[in-house]
Amino acid sequence: MPFSAIAAAAPRHSETISTTVSAPATGEKDDRYSFHTSALHSLVSHICDDNNRSVRCCNQLISLAQCIGFSTQPNSFGDRGDISPFEVRKRLYCLSTRLLRDRMSKDTHALGLEESWGWGMIQPDATSVIIRDKRSKAYQLLTVGDARVVTDLCTDSWQGENSTILPLGSADRKSIVDTGDNWTLSDLDVAAFSYAPVPYTLERVIVGKGGGEVNNKSSRVAGTTTYLVDNRATVESIPTPKEKESGQEDWSLVKNQIFLGLLGSAVRPRKEIEPAIEVWDTAGVRFVYFSPRNMRRTKELASQMGIDVAWNCAISLRVLDEGQEDYHRMTSTYADWYENARLPHGVENVKRHLKEVDNVPLLVSLYTDVTKGTTSEMVTVFQEYSDTVLAFGLSHLSQNDGIFSAADLAVGVDILAEETCLHEPRLSQDGRVLHHQRRSSSGSYSRNSLLSEEVSFVSHIASHSCIFNLKGSCSISHLPGIVARGRASLDAVTFASLFVVTACISFALFVLFCTFSVATVVPFVPPLGSILFVQIVIPIIGLTMSMTDGDSDSMNRVPPKNDESITFAPREGRRIYLCAILRALPVAIAPQLLYLISFGELVLHFEPLLLETECSMPRNQQASENWTAVIRCDALRNYSGDARTSAGSLMLADFALCVIVSSVGFVFKTNPLKSDRPWEQNHAWAWGTIVSIILIPCYLSATLAGGVLSALPWYYYILALLAPLICLAIGELVKQKDLWHENRAVMMRRLQFETRLGMWSPKEN
Question: At what angle do helices 538-545 and 642-662 cross, to 10 degrees?
Answer without folding.
Answer: 0
